[in-house]
């Protein structure tokens, strides 16, 4: 497959910006794939595919821990080269293969027993057909940050890492094992801690905390992102003023670069968050409509209300 501009695979879509996983995310992902409450973990016979592997540090860690085969697919030659260096550094070249290729066109994905994805909402949807087919074959799916609504809400586990990142594991075998437990066992377990002691019910949030959460939620408070963007514009204006009058130095330039990065990262995150919430509302509305159609009734209004409320909130933030 030929390369496009700057080492990009020709015709390959950009699935997500490069955002290296933290050590905690890598550690939790390895644990998530190991033996759990509802079934056995992966082993030497498994094949792990990472669609958009970046520097492949995750695959190196999985290969070292479980001795399984791993394949990383990366469309950018720069990161593919970095991935090769990581594989060489950890001496797992006999287990980890890095491909400079289009992650949406993997011919031998049917070899996979595990698929890992750290993509944005749109890219997850673009791979819906491929991922759904793999899941139905019994492939374990791990999604970093965003849940895969088209696989249903019955993911086996959702783990929070480094206080921000959420990992979703979809595994049919574990889901069946989890579903076979009785309601009485689940209720008893939910009221007990890891050591068997009774856990007190969570405290209700104070009015101050509720207001604080509302203030920093860009979907409920349309002014927070405007305040942030306004503050960033004022900061840029001040820095440019200092540069124009010859007061700039290396520190001013560094602040400008950092401020630009912060500005674009925050706005990108808000767009992804908004898209995820809107997609969730659409999924709920579609599920309600399908359930009502199955019963021969009109669509349940709650789904439509959720979708319309979400759209109204999104319009406020635009």
From TrEMBL:
Classification lineage: Eukaryota, Sar, Stramenopiles, Bigyra, Labyrinthulomycetes
Ranges where the record places region Disordered: 295-318
Organism, as annotated: Hondaea fermentalgiana
Feature: compositional bias, Acidic residues: 295-307
Protein name: Ribosomal protein L11 methyltransferase, putative
Domain (Methyltransferase) ranges: 48-135
Ranges annotated as spanning the membrane: 223-244, 250-270
Basic and acidic residues bias spans: 308-318
GO MF annotations, alphabetized: protein-lysine N-methyltransferase activity
Any single GO CC term annotated in Swiss-Prot or TrEMBL for this entry: ribosome
PANTHER family for the chain: METHYLTRANSFERASE DOMAIN-CONTAINING PROTEIN
InterPro entries: FAM173A/B (IPR026170), Methyltransf_25 (IPR041698), Pkr1 (IPR013945), SAM-dependent_MTases_sf (IPR029063)
Cited Pfam families: Methyltransf_25 (PF13649), Pkr1 (PF08636)
GO biological process: methylation; regulation of mitochondrial ATP synthesis coupled proton transport; vacuolar proton-transporting V-type ATPase complex assembly
